[in-house]
């Protein structure tokens, strides 16, 4: 999950940057235990392409990681703003439905822990 988020965010910063416009990162849990990652940037004319870089090149292999690790991925026009959104769906191995809480506070504790984890990951990605 971390590699996919890092690659999509790095690509947005490296290839999708427009001065004065920020990239946007969204993470959401899908109903099937997967996590959907969406990274939007302002460069709609620069779509990502998967290619196998030569041995002498420094970059060009990141999307191969995304293709290998994600169940699916793609691009769509950025909703409500110029640019594009690159998305990927990654299986987390988490069960489809959470186990029933053993006490009334356990469910709320699990939600807070998940929210804290997503917040920390989002803050980490803003440093890229």
Task: Write a structural description.
The chain is of the alpha+beta class and 128 residues long. 34% of the residues lie in helices and 22% in strands. It is built from three helices and four strands, in the order H-E-E-H-E-E-H. A four-stranded antiparallel beta sheet has the order 1-2-4-3, with helices on one face. Helix 1 packs antiparallel against helix 2. The protein is globular. The two termini are 16 Å apart.
List the helices and strands and how they pair.
Elements: H1 2-15, E1 24-29, E2 34-41, H2 62-69, E3 72-77, E4 84-91, H3 104-125
Antiparallel strand pairs: 1-2, 2-4, 3-4
Helix pairs in contact: 1-2
Taking pLDDT < 50 over at least 5 consecutive residues as the criterion, the unreliable ranges are none
Largest sheet: 4 strands, antiparallel
Helix % is 25-40%
Q: How are the strands of the biggest sheet laid out side by side?
A: 1-2-4-3
**General shape:** globular
- DSSP E strands, number: 4
Structural class: alpha+beta
Rg result: 17 Å
Average pLDDT: 80
Distance between the termini: 16 Å
Series of secondary-structure elements, N-terminal to C-terminal: HEEHEEH
Work out the strand percent: 15-25%
Helix count equals 3
């Amino acid at each position: 999950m971390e590699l996919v988020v890092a690659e999509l965010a790095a690509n947005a910063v490296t290839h999708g940057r427009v001065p004065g416009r920020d990239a946007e990162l969204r993470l959401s849990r899908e109903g099937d235990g997967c996590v959907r990652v969406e990274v939007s940037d302002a460069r709609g004319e620069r779509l990502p392409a998967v290619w196998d870089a030569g041995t002498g090149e420094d970059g060009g292999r990141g999307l191969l990681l995304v293709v290998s690790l994600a169940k699916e991925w793609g691009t769509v026009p950025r909703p409500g703003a110029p640019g594009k959104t690159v998305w990927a769906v990654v299986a987390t191995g988490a069960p489809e439905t959470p186990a029933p809480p053993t006490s009334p506070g356990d469910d709320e504790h699990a939600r807070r822990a998940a929210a804290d984890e997503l917040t920390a990951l989002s803050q980490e990605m803003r440093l890229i």
